[in-house]
Amino acid sequence: MQTELSTRLGVEHAVFGFTPFPAVAAAISRAGGFGVLGAVRYGAGEDLARDLDWMQEHTDGAPYGLDVVMPAKKVEGVTEAQIEAMIPEGHRAFVRDTLAKHGVPELAEGEASGWRITGWLEQVARSQLDVAFDYPVKLLANALGSPPPDVVARAHDHGILVAALAGSARHARHHQEAGLDVIVAQGYEAGGHTGEIASMVLTPEVVRAVDPLPVLAAGGIGSGEQIAAGLALGAQGVWIGSLWLTTEEAELHSAALTRKLLAAGSGDTVRSRALTGKPARQLRTEWTDAWEDPDGPDPLPMPLQGLLVAEAVSRIQKYEVEPLLGTPVGQIVGRMDSVRPVRAVFDDLTRGFERAIDRVNRIAGRA
Ligand SMILES: Cc1cc2nc3c(=O)[nH]c(=O)nc-3n(C[C@H](O)[C@H](O)[C@H](O)COP(=O)(O)O)c2cc1C
User: Ligand 1 mean position to 225 CA, how many Å?
Assistant: First the structure.
């Protein structure tokens, strides 16, 4: 599975794997793909440096990338505490009541909330980049819009390609105008923040809109046949996120969550603002249902919603409160039905790709 982009990055297969787990990212790169480590859950730098050191030791020299979350809109000159003070009391009460209804225990006295997304604060993302530029990262991706011009320039000075996710052709063209090198066209069915256009429509639309920039097809890819489809639509590779959540290397630290992922069908996700304030596809749970209730409050805009629910999510995860327990995941969750090493998943992808090519060749009368 080689394309101009995979050759440029020096990888065997044009399969890009997004994951928040270093062990998964390293395994994807070792398997011949391109592992991309998500940095949003790291704080301002030290933990990231530790894990990038680890990646260096465990990628056998194979290239890898980093994904940061720099929102397009800046929140400038405001401290986290000031932002937190903007959360209405009614919303806090709703969270308290929902947790109480399900008997979710409190965290221990003085215990910090483990689930705290601060990576979307521009100053945090910037300090992560200060760390990242000391490592041989080959691609820098941004989740929420084009990174600021100085970040793009710095990455280019380090010989790093810059990518960004796009949910529409308009977004993609904006990234192109901002001087980015790679567009990740992420469809509606994907896990995490998504737009409203499905991959089948989005991929060729973005390919045409930003030609000749390379495009990666993302959203709903869990088999080699789907990879072949993405490449047939003009993509120079695929970008996969959900599929790795049920690999042996994924550090979900929750048997209950893994069980829920394995049991879920493709209709068991919902695009909800309950987690971050922006529409993000995730497992449908009693927590997401509570936020859909017309009698309850509307989720707050980003970044307030993330701050509002951070402690609640930590408590739900820590005590594995099954009805409320969820994670961002895409519709491909319906295909994730066993826990396997990354290498086995990857081998399946390459075999499925071969099958798809053979099949299409037969149909075209070429084999
Ligand atoms: C658990 C999870 C967390 C994610 N977090 C991020 C993130 O921090 N930054 C980002 O650019 N994309 C994030 N995404 C989206 C992925 O980068 C990718 O575009 C998406 O998973 C592709 O669709 P798929 O889930 O159908 O494979 C996340 C996806 C999942 C499943």
Answer: 20
